[in-house]
Amino acid sequence: MKRTLSSQVPKSIGKEVLVEGWIHKIRKLGGINFLVIRDRSGLVQAIVGGEEAIEKLKDLTTETVVKIIGNVVKEDRAPGGAEIHVTTVEVLSPVKEDLPVEINKKDLNVNLDTLFDWRPITLRAPKQRAIFKVQAEILSAWRDFFKENDFTEINTPKIVEAGAETGGAEMFEIKYFKKKAFLAQSPQLYKEIMAGVFERVFETAYAYRAEPHSTSRHINEYLSLDMEMGFIDSWMDLINIHQELIKFILESLKKNAKAEFELLGATLPEYVKIPVIKLREAQEILEKEYGEKCVGEPDLEPRHEKQICEYSNKKWGTEFIFITHYPSKKRPFYTMDDPESPEETLSFDLLFRGLEVTTGSQRIHRYEDHLEKMRKRGMSTKGFEDYLNVFKYGMPPHGGFCQGLERLTARFLELDNVKEASLFPRDMNRLRP
Amino acid sequence: MKRTLSSQVPKSIGKEVLVEGWIHKIRKLGGINFLVIRDRSGLVQAIVGGEEAIEKLKDLTTETVVKIIGNVVKEDRAPGGAEIHVTTVEVLSPVKEDLPVEINKKDLNVNLDTLFDWRPITLRAPKQRAIFKVQAEILSAWRDFFKENDFTEINTPKIVEAGAETGGAEMFEIKYFKKKAFLAQSPQLYKEIMAGVFERVFETAYAYRAEPHSTSRHINEYLSLDMEMGFIDSWMDLINIHQELIKFILESLKKNAKAEFELLGATLPEYVKIPVIKLREAQEILEKEYGEKCVGEPDLEPRHEKQICEYSNKKWGTEFIFITHYPSKKRPFYTMDDPESPEETLSFDLLFRGLEVTTGSQRIHRYEDHLEKMRKRGMSTKGFEDYLNVFKYGMPPHGGFCQGLERLTARFLELDNVKEASLFPRDMNRLRP
């Protein structure tokens, strides 16, 4: 007999089905046992009445893996409008110890440490599963969008000799045979090299930051969604394709993750063209509207990011906002300065619901321009030879951006802590499970 | 004026176009310059005749990035049947040093060290690009197949406290703040945990092996394609879905990568149902057909893998073959032994064109069965607590397999060395670029 998924049971009224899954709930009432069985597709109610079957269930607890056979009966009070009247029960896999966390309540109501310490169990709770269903959907949509736009997927090394950004600072050190190596903090150098090969490339892979602090906005191992695009006419090409990307992701989520957003009580935004304003303009708004004396500061504070998103929502009807033209001294050396205002760069962040979810820019593409900028910054080229080398051999005008998948997921689902959007988060104090 | 891709130029005969790309070839003949321009879509021929334009080209070398404008003219002798008569040339990015490798010949004709030392340049050669176009297609098809089969994509940590397979041996060590950690050699533990959450999961991410040898079959950082599937009836469910996967990948390559296979002179196999034989049977064939005295050995030697694939091709018309039932002592402890023959396991490898490209098995899913097997092997449970823990809380019968993307690509394209299928390979002696 072939397995029927729980979501398909209501389509089999009057028929016998075989269902496999976990006992999500069990309730004994008189001589009858009410079970709720959970499988990958959802939940289904099952009624066990026979003596033999009840005997088998006697000592079983939730999370026991069972195979049941029974007849599907219309029952308006059951989820999906049907339930199974069980004839046989078989235990596929028992539970050996008391569950550390009850996962069949509406909410888990545990603190973050418990949530992560018992990840193999807490992830089975419907709301936790929903978070990672949405995450898988965002990731899939992200890749599909770039494939449809003629980008080539690349896989670049995470074991590197030095960092493109900082040359070793805030990077995890590895013993690589007899040498010292580091975990890549970004695929920056490699995606630029590959823009010289395929013009348009993307990569979805882990990046590592050895930042020794534990905040609700950071994790030390995160999935970096990276794109790089050659032959741009200006940095606005990057903003434009990013607008299209957000639209595409929103449409995919609407189509494929509506149930998860509902379960989690999160609002899926409608696409509205995202406003693009300079950092300076944002600061003027913050001063005028919120009394924040921040004009001329090199970056926005976390509370400013919240305020400007709130403002964007009020004024333009979207919780997204592009902030552009960050000062040159606050952006990595490879960022192109604005020829019309050399203290500023052709760079941008995308903020969403109060948090930066994207960083991007046009890059310098001529070798001499790199040397000149490094000279002006008083930077040595030492340690950056590999990075600089490729610019000797014809690199097109290019730029790109990156997003953190966990941050993006957390903002879409309005989670308090970015770690909640990581299956097995890594931070200063957490290395397992 | 909007950019036209080189592949679209033949559709614009009689019109003016703007093309951007690299000078792939340049040849001066009398007062005329013949250029071949390369962009992401291919190559196009361009003729420069005007004095001013020729002056601009005077000192230019191949790989210079240019923007040209000109009229498209029918020309049967040009690739695509059209060429551009250039009116203006603009240099977007010059070449500053002599190219270390000529990349515009049919073949590169360089040794592997040169190939990898100059990766930013050698990857631009059409045949090198084709390898990674095929690789991107395999990766995309691999994910699409599992998504269509109701698998959920997961992202599991690569920074781990201990190894699921060996508990630390042959793993790269990381300084993780004040602790010692390792780079994951496989997502084994995590994908099993996640089969307990979503039943069907897949992951495409790097895995790391600190094997201190340099062969044509190994790299130390490789992209591991992992799947795990709950509620299997038997290990044959895994073989069956793997058959479908291979069929799906072959169809995708036929549809989307035909040109690349042709350019590389590689044969794309037709799908034929892949034979499934036990190791013991394979050894008997090797003895009978090739005079190899190997019956009873715990594994196949590299030359045996070549011979058995050759045999499969002759006998069954496919260069793929599943070898099953490897001896228990040669497989990891979590592999399920065959209840009918406990010295053997419910495990399999897929061989393709002489090389193992997949390893898989049904896993043990009951806690006591794990303890019993570890006891029988004389293994301590120390270091495996996290792995074992999840089996206390109801794990379904499950199994899975993994493939190395680079190996798979190398066998499809009949490359001599698996490193040729890695953009920036890492081995004992190579940590850059």
Topology:
Two copies of one chain form a homodimer.
Chain A: E1 16-29, E2 32-39, E3 42-48, H1 51-57, E4 65-74, E5 82-93, H2 112-117, H3 119-122, H4 126-148, E6 152-153, E7 159-160, E8 173-176, E9 179-183, H5 188-198, E10 200-208, E11 221-230, H6 236-256, H7 258-264, E12 276-278, H8 279-290, H9 302-316, E13 320-324, E14 337-338, E15 341-345, E16 347-352, E17 355-362, H10 367-377, H11 385-389, E18 398-404, H12 405-412
Parallel strand pairs in A: 3-5, 6-10, 12-13
Antiparallel strand pairs in A: 1-2, 1-4, 2-3, 4-5, 7-9, 8-9, 10-11, 11-18, 13-16, 14-15, 16-17, 17-18
Helix pairs in contact in A: 4-6, 4-7, 4-12, 8-9
Number of helices of chain A: 12
Mean pLDDT of chain A: 94
Biggest sheet layout of chain A: 8 strands, mixed
Tally of structural domains of chain A:
2
- State the CATH superfamily name of the largest domain in chain A: Bira Bifunctional Protein, Domain 2
